[in-house]
């Protein structure tokens, strides 16, 4: 077991520590609540000479990702961080980064999107970016935010992936709450992350290349997008491979999904991020009462782990799907749509109920989770209908 440092730390600090150990060549970032501490802490590492990163102060999040795109295309290892309206301001650049196949790593502090103005945690921002061609991971804890950040560099820079990766943690709940965390020895981490070997960098006089050129009315644009789809699909086994390598070092498990008591569960709730701990606590209480409850937490959200979700849910009598954002105009929330699509391949239908919860940082209480499990029992019995409902809103 490598040397570890145990400390009380927030999720933001753990992301900063992971970035310090990976030591990107360039970080371009703009502060925004509740992400600010990530880049604020990293700027101290730069000022103190602990890293040799070129830290670029920019005037907006659009500019920060633009600078990251240029640096990554030149061949540098690049990272950034953002949240909420900042991620929204990057929308144009998100697609440029993935379309140019640039292995940028970005931490997003999940936060509500205005209006009305709200600085608290939900998944409205990241769900707006879910189909932009980025690999996306959700951390439940500060420790997992650290692990996911390090794994992200290996995924992004893998020669068979070459795509940007967004590693997310819930605003204030994970970004600012203090937890017991472990940081591995710098040299162990550096050996795991390795060095970036750029593919077709702009700065290479022996092999001139162009990036992001105009695509004519023919098939060139179409072909690039098909290749982008192939790349993110191909990342699925690679994510598992590099995640398992990290798990073998740090002795913390890694998988696309975390299935808690799902093997024999009759009633399962699917959830992302920080709410999973409370849902598991309720499931344990229900188990003690003889009710077979389970929890499926999705850790890797893009590419969506449909096979793993299907395997975990296939024996359930009813499934509740928790969404911390809405997909206005669609029948269900974003996760609800994905999970129901995965379940379509089962020979027998499993009834589902999609719960929108915790928007704008609204509390998800133990009682409201119990209410959801109670409704799943009613759903399995046929006494209530499937559909979409808001959980805990007054």
**How many structural domains can be distinguished in the coordinates?**
2
Show unreliable segments: none
Q: Report the mean per-residue pLDDT as an integer.
A: 96
DSSP strand content: 15-25%
Helix percentage range? 40-55%
Biggest β-sheet, characterized? 7 strands, mixed
What fold name goes in the CATH topology slot of the largest domain?
Rossmann fold
- Please report the total strand number as a whole number: 15
How are strands sequenced across the largest beta sheet?
A: 3-2-4-5-7-6-12
Number of helices: 13
Question: What does this 3D model show about the protein?
Answer:
The protein is α/β, with parallel strands linked by helices and 394 residues long. It has 2 domains: 247 residues, Rossmann fold (3-Layer(aba) Sandwich); 135 residues, Rossmann fold. It contains 13 helices and 15 strands. A 7-stranded mixed beta sheet has the order 3-2-4-5-7-6-12, sandwiched between helices. It has a 6-stranded mixed beta sheet with strand order 9-11-10-13-14-15, sandwiched between helices. α1 packs parallel to α7 and α11 crosses α12. The mean pLDDT is 96.
């Amino acid at each position: 077991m490598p040397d570890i440092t145990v400390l009380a730390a927030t999720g933001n600090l753990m992301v900063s520590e992971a970035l310090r150990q990976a030591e990107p060549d360039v970080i371009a970032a703009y502060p925004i609540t509740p992400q600010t501490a990530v880049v604020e802490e990293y700027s101290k590492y730069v000022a103190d000479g602990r890293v040799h990163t070129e830290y670029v102060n920019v005037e907006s999040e659009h500019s920060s990702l633009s600078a990251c795109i240029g640096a990554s295309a030149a061949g540098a290892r690049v990272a950034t961080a953002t949240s909420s309206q900042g991620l929204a301001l990057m929308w144009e650049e998100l697609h440029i980064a993935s379309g140019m196949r640039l292995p940028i790593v970005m931490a997003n502090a999940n936060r509500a999107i205005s209006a009305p103005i709200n600085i608290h945690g939900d998944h409205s921002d990241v769900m707006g970016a879910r189909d932009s061609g980025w690999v996306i991971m959700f951390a439940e804890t500060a420790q997992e935010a650290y692990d996911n950040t390090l794994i992200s560099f290996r995924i992004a820079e893998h020669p068979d992936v070459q795509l940007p990766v967004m590693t997310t943690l819930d605003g204030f709940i994970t970004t600012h709450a203090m937890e017991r965390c472990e940081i591995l020895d710098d040299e162990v981490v550096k050996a795991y992350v390795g060095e970036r070997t750029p593919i077709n960098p702009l700065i290479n006089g022996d092999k001139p290349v162009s990036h992001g050129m105009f695509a004519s009315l023919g098939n060139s644009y179409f072909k690039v997008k098909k290749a982008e789809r192939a790349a993110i699909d191909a990342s699925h086994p690679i994510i598992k491979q590099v995640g398992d390598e990290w798990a073998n070092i740090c002795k913390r498990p890694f998988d696309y999904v975390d299935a808690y008591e799902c093997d024999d569960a009759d009633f399962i709730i699917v959830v992302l991020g920080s709410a999973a701990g409370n849902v598991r606590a309720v499931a344990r209480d229900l188990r003690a009462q003889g009710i077979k409850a389970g929890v499926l937490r999705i850790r890797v959200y893009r590419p969506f782990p449909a096979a793993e979700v299907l395997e975990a849910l296939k024996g359930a009598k009813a499934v509740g799907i928790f969404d911390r954002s809405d997909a206005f105009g669609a029948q269900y929330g974003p996760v609800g749509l994905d999970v129901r699509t995965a379940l379509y391949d089962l020979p027998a239908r499993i009834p589902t109920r999609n719960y929108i919860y915790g928007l704008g940082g609204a509390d998800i209480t133990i009682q409201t989770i119990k209410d959801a499990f109670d409704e799943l029992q009613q759903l399995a019995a046929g006494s209530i209908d499937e559909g979409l409902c808001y959980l805990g809103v007054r």
